[in-house]
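Blackboard transcription, Thursday session:
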Amino acid sequence: MHEIEMKPSPKVSIEFDGQTLQANKGETVAAALLRQTHLAFRTTPVTGKSRGPFCMMGVCFDCLVEIDGAPNRQACMTYVEDGMRVKRQLGAGDTGVFLSDEEDTQ
Amino acid sequence: MKDHYDIAIIGTGPAGMAAATVASAHGADVLIVDEQPEVGGQIYRGITHQSIKDKTILGDDYYKGQSLADAFAASNADHVSGATIWQVSPEREIGISKDGAAHLLTADQVIIATGAQERPFPIPGWTLPGVMTAGSAQILLKSSGITFSNAVFAGTGPLLYLIAYQYLKAGVPIRAILDTTPKSNRLKALPHLPGALFHLSSIMKGRKWIKALKSSGTLFIEGIDNLKITGKDSTEAIEYLLQNKWHRIEASNVFLHQGVVPNVNLAMASGCIHHWNEQKLCWHASTDEWGSSNVPGISIAGDGGGIGGAIAAEYQGRIAAYQALYTTNKVKKQERDTNVLPAQHALTHEMRIRPFLDAMFRPATQYRIPTDDATIVCRCEEVTAGKIRESISLGCAGPNQLKGFTRCGMGPCQGRFCSLSVSELIAKAQNVSVNELEQLRLRPPVKPLMLAELANLTTLASEDT
Ligand code: FES
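(Written on the board underneath:)
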């Protein structure tokens, strides 16, 4: 990390896996974690490998974390709020909550 | 948010903002919706509240977005931000989810302006934490002022040099730039040089970035023939093949880039016809000169239809807006034609550099179609190139069948980071052009929805009956 000179921003504090960290208001959860050089956000459902944000624009879904108890939240699309509790997502989180195109495999 | 609009625009990047500004200025009832809380798209991300003090870091081209954002802010378009757009049906029924609740609304005209995404760059280790796209480095810089010291930038294309140059300007040490531009591209780009010379200043700008990077003492290696990233649970090193020898650079952060491609999922799922563009190696929307697709009332503007860059996107947004205004009887044919003429000329001019850029930064095959069977192609379902090749040899004929064979393309990203590689892999194995293959069938919701979000739709529906 290398901080660039910025206009001061109001701070919020969030929790990541039980550890409290400071974030800038108006930034995404992914940015706040990366700022603290947390690069791994989850493990994959298939092989349990570590993953972290890849695209930062909502496309890859590799930044999935659990936020305030809800799994499968895109950290790069979710903005920090004071007191937010973020957890690494291990495996599939809570499978079945996603609704996406699953049929049509003939 | 109302139940019906004259014109609905998806995306608040340059194309969407320009379209909304024009359309609402002519009295249309306009909705514009985007996933992000602020306008700007990715190119002008953070433009409305940029807090980096030194304006030379992001450069003039970035701050050009300000006037566009200001004009848009002064318009009276309904702006719904921070929303997931999960469908645009061929009947122009738009599914939007915001704050955990889903909504359906309709529009007479829909302009899809979903912009670009990074081209998939499937090399060994590209899924390791610490490996990100060059675009994400830019997003982190623009929106939060976050950079990573001693990162490696690897790949090809103007955006790669630009972000590295921005790092340099910001005083962030760069470990290395590994340039994968094939040497042979220069020769192939040469015939397109005359068109590009209309944009000499852009070319000079690119040269300036590269020159500054090289003279800064940053390790800048050209002619790289292959790459792999290694590490156990996160990135430890990047290895590169140069003149038949592998070398290794230790790094915790690697930013990859092989250019950008249109974000086509929403338009494809709406039934808009796309074709494979062999020069640009990606899907292109099949649209007319107004950006209108085959689906009545749905048009596509900006990079989402084909990469032209931010300035071209703005013109395309304007052109699509005038056509939508004309179709909804807000302007007469004459007024449309007079108003749109400058934008059409400017667009033609803007596009002149593209064939040169496409040839010059055409990604080499090994960065699009993995050579190593163990390389992951589908990040979501962890499907390797080897597994895909095996499925092809077992008779799998196309990307839709491949889902059944391997679950490839069935994860939450819905093929956004694998379908180009998959199509090229299958086409290569069958020795046909990608255009001869069937396309990955996409259906709404084009972004995963939580079941809970749909609950309120059911409520809405039962209220209707
Ligand atoms: S980092 Fe790609 S979706 Fe969040």
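Lecturer's comment: Chain A touches chain B through 49 residues (CB under 8 Å).
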